[in-house]
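S.,

Sequence below, as promised.
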Amino acid sequence: MDKEKDERKIVYFPNVAGKLVEKGMAALKAKEITKAHEHFSQLLEIEPEHPQGHFGMVLSLVEMGNLSEASERCETMMQQGIGDYYDIFQVYISILVQLGKYQKVVTMIEAVLQENQLPSNIAESLYQLLHFSRQMTSYDLDSEADYDAGHEEDVDKLIDYLESDKTEKQWLAIQKLSTVDEQKSLPVYLTYLNATNKDPLLKSLVLQVLREKELDQEVVVHKFGREIKVNPATLQDIFLQDFSLSVKSKLSDVVEQGNPALFEMCMQIWWHYLFAITPFEAEPSNSSVWAAAVHKVASEMNGEDVTNEDLRMFYEVKPSEFEVAANRIMNIENQPFYRPFE
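The prediction came back faster than expected:
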């Protein structure tokens, strides 16, 4: 009897959980997804509540294309308080977008933004997903949302969508192709970036996908009649750049305390503009000029009274400088598909 008990007793080596986390993350980075899944599964057998084990399992499921299961696991983690809530939330929202559940994305992001408890960099990055998802809820994609990215004919259909005149279909294709084998999706993405007649905001989405996939090679991007070569793996998050945060800081000093709603609109406009022009940078590189320009545009769109003289005094820049920048912002806001405040 004692022998049977001894046989059933499992003794693990010290720090086995930490080693499994390391192995799992290394396997994910090396695109050895099956191995990663095995490591995280083993970890959860040992420690069923291990936060990194659950998070790693979600990431491996996403890479395997099991988005529904990954989505369910995220929901469970948030409900049970396993891991960092906002890290899981970001991954969960990304999964919902890939699944085409745009109304749920809108509902969840609006709810957490209203709580005003998000770290600023996370809140800022969510504005773009909120904007895109709001746009998508006005377009009926139910019949297209069930594509299986593993089927050859469905991959071909998504590639055809990139040539569609409807930017909504292009957006869907970009999201769905992100779950396809890179040998199939990468050439399509690179062609899209190099095209001269594609939506600049959707090209930013493609760059975001390639950055998340850590594509370490030079790609050619055409935007606004200009060409630039960039390496997606080295691109910095536009929401965390010193310059973009400096503009935010100046707007906060002038607008936030007196008019929080206007400040939120300012930030949406600013992140929207940066996202549209990436990988190019805002020029001139004067944060006061851009803060004044954003303030001007947001005020006009919100029906607020602010004069050029007011802005000159607030930000200590000439109207001739910030009016040029404001016109550039309005050119982006007037893009036919992406209008965040309709």
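The longest strand covers residues 219-223.

Coffee later?
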